[in-house]
Specification:
homodimer; 158 residues; mainly alpha; two-stranded antiparallel ribbon; 2 strands; 70% helix; DNA-binding
DNA sequence: TATAACCTTGACGTTGGCGTTAAGGCGCAA
DNA sequence: TTGCGCCTTAACGCCAACGTCAAGGTTATA
């Protein structure tokens, strides 16, 4: 345990402020193993690193990217319903101005969904790129290991 | 209310079986407004349509696509941690066989994540296509409305 | 050294998303 | 008309992901 708080270490309140989550959430993540238990001051105060801050932000990005409640799904399904009703009552003899208004409304709703989906796809693609780079890095490391082995033991293996 | 169950109508048990959710879940979705209240038989039994079945399947697809718990996020973050440890102890002088095993393990984990992300992106892209087609449909309808107006009132407007 | 600001660990509350009895009605075949 | 399976609502239970006190310890600053 650290006796003194070092310059680059943060207390839970600062981490909370900088990540936008509550202190409760930080302790909760620690409890659930999402954050490794941080160091402590003598008195027991948690001391976080910049790495921890990054991790929290990462977790929140993932949550934002992947987490959708039934309430969110309801919005999407409701939009579908609006569309279905519109289609059902699409009577060419009805008031054109009304139709146009409904159509505009349906367009708005659909565009909102479209925007959200596009954003999520973009974020997902960034993750994909990161993972791909990581895999390539591993491949390079493997090659390095192969070469080390070949250089180190060419005579012994004969 | 329907007196008799018609040929194309389904009771809750059948819907549950065909959608893979429980009866409780179907009632729950209705309660939360995700499913419109279905018709009833005289005795009060729910009568669902094929449309309802589609809706339930749609809801589940969305849930599967978008829903990820902290437990799932923990898996991803844990994989990051494995990588960080690996990187930290990458000591060229250490046992090569060990390194290779760790590297293979890290590769496995990363590939698993990569696969999941790719699947989700693909599903998202399908949604994107659907929404895009919908928007184009709306555009066509708007044009039709424009033309109807032009055809119907060219003289009156002068 | 006192006091405000910050922190600690409980422990109970809340909302979402259902699972699980419980107690009883409905539908249909024999 | 009785039996059996399917259905109804009501109500309690459970886990996740926190929010919200409560009671008290720590640190920094005057």
């Amino acid at each position: 345990m650290a006796n003194e708080k070092q310059g680059d270490q943060l207390q839970i309140g600062e981490v909370a402020e900088r990540t936008g989550v509550t202190q409760r959430t930080l302790r909760f993540y620690e409890e659930k193993g999402l954050l490794r238990p941080p160091e402590r001051m003598e008195g027991g105060f948690r001391l976080y690193s910049e790495e921890d801050v990054k991790r929290v932000k990462h977790i929140r990005r993932l949550q934002d990217l992947l987490g959708v409640s039934l309430a969110g799904i309801k919005e999407m399904v409701d939009a579908d319903e609006v569309l279905r009703e519109l289609r059902a009552q699409f009577d060419p003899a009805a008031a054109i101005a009304d139709k146009r208004r409904q159509l505009n409304r349906a367009t708005e709703v659909t565009e909102a969904q479209y925007t959200i989906v596009k954003q999520k796809i973009e974020q997902m693609r960034q993750m994909e790129v990161q993972l791909d780079e990581r895999l390539k890095l591993f491949q390079r490391w493997k090659k390095e290991l192969d070469e080390m082995e070949r250089d180190a033991a060419p005579t012994r293996s004969q």
